[in-house]
Amino acid sequence: MTIKAKICGIRDDDTARIAIDSGANMLGFISFPKSPRHLDIDQMAQLIANATTYTLHKGYDVKGVSVLVDPDDTLLEAIVTRARPHLIQLHGHETLERVRHIRDRFKTPLIKAISVETRADVLNAAPYESVVDHLLFDAKPPKDATLPGGVGARFDWTLMEGYPAKAPWLLAGGLTPWNVAEAVSQAKAPMVDVSSGVERAPGLKDPSLISQFLKAVKAI
Ligand SMILES: O=C(O)c1ccccc1NCC(=O)[C@H](O)[C@H](O)COP(=O)(O)O
């Protein structure tokens, strides 16, 4: 089984290259000022441009993803025109109507993050499948969390059992090099996403953990 992987919260070119060379399929770049992984638009644009050039040079197919939280149209316009991501990940409380508007106006493939605590959270995501390219099922963050993602929280992976997917989807939340095989096996996930599980401190990626994570994914 070939499982695809997204490494989220990339903040520098060296880390992007390590992820690309280790077999990542997507790289996530975050715009959310409260996050230790936050990038301004110029930083994000430069990182995505450099990663894209490197990817083409190496002959790989790796997508750059801008991760945004309840973005307004002004931010989206700036991201789409300046950072030029392959995909945009919506990681806030965007409604179905809002996601449809973003799809129609900005014409960039979308990933919608869904916060999961119960089976109902998983099933209620179905209407989004017709307006996005991927869903990303992530753990609902703890009540006192200051971030909507990237907090290392995991949910009960068996909640995904028998999920009747009509769109490609990613499993996220608390994944590590040591639990990703078990997570994929329980959730039957076709793609995985990780951030804090490949860091040595919040916002500080660990190259060795990135390659261990991607090795563990390849071995599934
Ligand atoms: O990672 C962040 O700082 C972040 C901030 C705001 C919105 C989303 C964010 N991360 C989104 C991701 O895709 C993470 O990879 C996902 O939540 C899993 O994180 P982790 O549990 O740390 O692996």
UniProtKB/TrEMBL annotation:
Residues 5-215 form the N-(5'phosphoribosyl) anthranilate isomerase (PRAI) domain. It comes from the Bacteria. The keyword Acyltransferase does not apply. This is N-(5'-phosphoribosyl)anthranilate isomerase. It comes from Asticcacaulis aquaticus. Keywords: Amino-acid biosynthesis, Aromatic amino acid biosynthesis, Isomerase, Tryptophan biosynthesis. It catalyses: N-(5-phospho-beta-D-ribosyl)anthranilate = 1-(2-carboxyphenylamino)-1-deoxy-D-ribulose 5-phosphate. Signal peptide: none annotated. Belongs to the TrpF family. NCBIfam families: PRK01222.1-1 (NF002295). Pathway: Amino-acid biosynthesis; L-tryptophan biosynthesis; L-tryptophan from chorismate: step 3/5. Its EC number is 5.3.1.24.
